[in-house]
Write a structure and sequence with these properties.
The chain is α+β, with helices and mostly antiparallel strands. 49% of the residues lie in helices and 13% in strands. Strand 4 and strand 5 form a beta hairpin. It is globular, with a radius of gyration of 18 Å. The protein starts with a helix and ends in a 6-residue tail after the last helix. 36% of the residues are buried. InterPro entries: Sig_transdc_resp-reg_C-effctor, TF_LuxR_autoind-bd_dom, TF_LuxR_autoind-bd_dom_sf, Tscrpt_reg_LuxR_C, WH-like_DNA-bd_sf.
Length: 238
Amino acid sequence: MDLGDYISAMAQAGDTATLQRVFVSALAREGVDWFAYARSFDPSNPDMNEADYRLGNFPEMWAERYFDAGYDASDPVRLYAFRTAQPFTWGEAEARIGAERPVPPILDEAANVGLSAGATIALFGPGGRLYSVSFGAAQPGVEREWDLNRLGILAHQLHLTYERLTEPDPVASTTLTVREQDVLHWCARGKSNTDISEIMGISPNTVDYYMRRIYNKLGVNSRTPAALMGIMTGIIQP
């Protein structure tokens, strides 16, 4: 798919599910296996250091481990994204941040679950907002073969199209993963994060990670509206 066809396909996307399919297809031609698109907040600010997840298909096992270990607050990739507008590999971020402070073994752990290579594009928006698109692959070292400038173009188009699709109606084409639906199901039944973690066999931090994803997808900021929106849109049963 050349860039013209990609931009045309993005322009025709009518929902975020189609948007993700087009993006994943384009990434496959670039040798990229997975991606994550999020709005990021400064990890050094303890009052606002959470990532606002939007789209992606990173391995679920890694996503759960990442948030369960609290890596979102100490990830060198997130820290470095606030310093550069240039595309960068995860190894570069680890080296730059690691020269200044100890960093957790995030990349080693990612490699252990098959996420062996990666790069990130920082996208800056109005009001100082920062968004990022991270790319991952199973083949070690393959990121050195990626055309990061080309990936940057793909990422910017993803961001612009997502904004177009979600501005008018944030829940018009919402889809939750099976895991997110399970969390929302128990949330709607009045269960706390601790209760849900015990029921589902995951940590409270991981439940919180899923709740934040649910809030973002449904365009709400608390549990009760999330539960009501889930029922009203048929995502979960009353």
